[in-house]
TrEMBL record:
Residues 1-29 are annotated as: Disordered. Coiled coil: none annotated. Signal peptide: none annotated. It comes from Trinickia fusca. InterPro entries: Acyl_CoA_acyltransferase, GNAT_dom, N-acetyltransferase. This is N-acetyltransferase.
Amino acid sequence: MEKLTEKSMRDLTLRKNSTADNSEAPASKYSLPERTALITERLHLRRAQRGDAKTLFSNYTSDVDCSHFLQRKPHSTVSQTDSMLQKFCDEAWNVSGTPFSWVIAKRETDEPIGLFLAFPDGHKTDFHYGIGKRFWGQGLASEAGKATLEALWKSPNTQRIWTFCDPENIGSKRVLEKLGLTHEGILRKWAVLPAFGPEARDCHVFGATRVKE
Ligand SMILES: CC(C)(COP(=O)(O)OP(=O)(O)OC[C@H]1O[C@@H](n2cnc3c(N)ncnc32)[C@H](O)[C@@H]1OP(=O)(O)O)[C@@H](O)C(=O)NCCC(=O)NCCS
């Protein structure tokens, strides 16, 4: 469930010269081990780049079904998506300890299709993710999650990675199981999901911990 507090976001366009892909950048420029571009068989997980907002809005952030189990409403304007990308997928990439996000893009075309957000909080990090409806059922969320979790474990402080999901979100529960997370229990009245109204909902919590070597 994406935790995006839109009211706190500035309505900015992505910086003109903002570059997304740091895969070929010198390591010294991007010193945070987990905030790096990732390549999988079919995906390119990366920083935001110019032009992403419009396509991501169309593919994912504006979609009612994609937002059904999220803590935000569907975006109604491209600028909301642009602001989110600016904050989480660009500015945060060089700032340790802040929430940040990968843009999930198709590897072949670099088309942005979803987001994978990470919220570091001391020794633990929770994550939230989603991809556009057109891309469901192809194993892409699992593929993205495997790569991003591996990257998150590279942060030396991280001892716990976790998330929660709505009991009715069968697809997400399955993805989390496939990623090797353990179903740890139920958090009562944990999240308000706008699609379900103001009443907080019980959520399933899934987690993994670093094994002490
Ligand atoms: C949940 C979501 C990320 C799943 O993405 P996806 O790319 O379709 O997932 P995958 O293809 O990797 O599927 C992984 C497994 O889940 C199963 N699955 C996915 N969606 C399912 C659904 N709606 N019902 C039942 N099973 C489902 C797949 O069959 C697969 O299982 P298998 O490998 O045993 O066959 C996607 O539906 C989505 O983005 N939803 C909107 C945002 C959201 O709800 N995010 C999660 C918030 S907690």
